[in-house]
């Protein structure tokens, strides 16, 4: 009987020590246990500390939505402002900035952001409908970019100026080539069985999204390099020029965040 009382005392003391060690002097639990706290099992905890994860934090959610809305406004605003500054119709060259801004600042940006899980003007459209809109936007990118290239070549020929002598022109050619290759990659995603591709559809989508991100970043660098051209520096000066220099970077950050969050593999993809 005495031995049983001693064992019971030791076990009670051990439980008490374990229970007290789990709490701070202020009574806050160090290791929250859902069985004791009564919290639902689907609550996500932050991997860097205690409390709820960032996805459940309303301010974080609204900041992400505001960033996506700002990316839409920036893409449309850049297109409109560049179109006004270039004064289309005054020369052959004046159509080049218009076509290229429509292609990359507007159509390519909207073609990617329509898949945004935060805010999208096409949120009521089904997944299949969004994919068709994506095709349409990217087709407009190819048409507008090819048209802009044609106006640029015609302007150079009329002015008898050499081609591909600036960093902007070289980056532009690389961007156009990458855009065409990305369009071909999109066709592979649409018709994998017809083309008899061995890779799985999931892997093809991952390749397509990754290449799309590279193309968009390359297009952003090309747009930024256009700010250093003689025409743009003669048109926009002072602090306004610095604002234009930074504006294309914001949609690029939003697009990069969207693609990496949606397609970053969390587990190994089987072929």
Automatic annotation (TrEMBL):
Record's keyword annotation contains Cell membrane: no
InterPro entries listed in its UniProt record: CYB561D1/2 (IPR045150), Cyt_b561/ferric_Rdtase_TM (IPR006593)
Transmembrane annotation, as ranges: 62-86, 92-115, 135-155, 167-194, 206-229, 241-264
Top EC class of this enzyme: translocase
Gene Ontology annotations for the cellular component aspect, listed alphabetically: membrane
Cytochrome b561 domain location: 62-266
Needed cofactors: heme b
Molecular function as annotated in GO: metal ion binding; transmembrane ascorbate ferrireductase activity; transmembrane monodehydroascorbate reductase activity
Cellular localisation: Membrane
Predominant localisation class: membrane
Membrane topology, as annotated: Multi-pass membrane protein
E.C. number(s) listed in UniProt: 7.2.1.3
Keywords: Electron transport, Heme, Iron, Membrane, Metal-binding, Transmembrane, Transmembrane helix, Transport
Entry-linked PROSITE patterns: CYTOCHROME_B561
PANTHER family noted in UniProt: OS05G0565100 PROTEIN, TRANSMEMBRANE REDUCTASE CYB561D1-RELATED
Protein name: ascorbate ferrireductase (transmembrane)
Species, as recorded: Cottoperca gobio
């Amino acid at each position: 009987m005495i031995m049983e009382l001693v064992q019971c005392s030791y076990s009670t003391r051990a439980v008490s020590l374990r229970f007290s060690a789990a709490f701070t002097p202020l009574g806050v639990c160090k290791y929250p246990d859902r069985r004791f706290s009564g919290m639902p099992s689907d609550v996500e905890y932050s991997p860097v500390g205690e409390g709820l994860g960032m996805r459940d934090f309303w301010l974080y959610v609204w900041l992400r939505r505001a960033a996506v809305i700002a990316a839409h406004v920036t893409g449309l605003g850049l297109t409109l402002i560049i179109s006004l500054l270039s004064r289309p119709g005054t020369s052959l060259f004046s159509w080049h900035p218009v076509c290229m801004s429509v292609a990359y600042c507007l159509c390519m940006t909207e073609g990617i952001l329509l898949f945004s899980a935060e805010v999208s003007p096409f949120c009521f459209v089904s997944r299949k409908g969004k994919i068709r809109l994506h095709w349409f936007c990217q087709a407009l990118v190819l048409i507008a970019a090819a048209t802009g290239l044609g106006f640029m070549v015609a302007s150079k020929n009329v002015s008898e100026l050499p081609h591909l002598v600036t960093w902007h022109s070289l980056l532009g050619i690389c961007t156009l080539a990458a855009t065409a290759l990305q369009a071909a990659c999109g066709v592979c995603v649409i018709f994998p069985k017809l083309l008899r591709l061995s890779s799985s559809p999931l892997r093809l989508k991952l390749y397509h999204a990754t290449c799309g991100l590279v193309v968009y970043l390359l297009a952003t660098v090309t747009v930024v390099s256009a700010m250093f051209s003689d025409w743009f520096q003669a048109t926009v000066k002072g602090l306004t020029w610095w604002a234009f220099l930074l504006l294309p970077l914001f949609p690029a950050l939003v697009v990069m965040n969207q693609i990496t969050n949606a397609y970053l593999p969390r587990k190994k993809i089987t072929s």
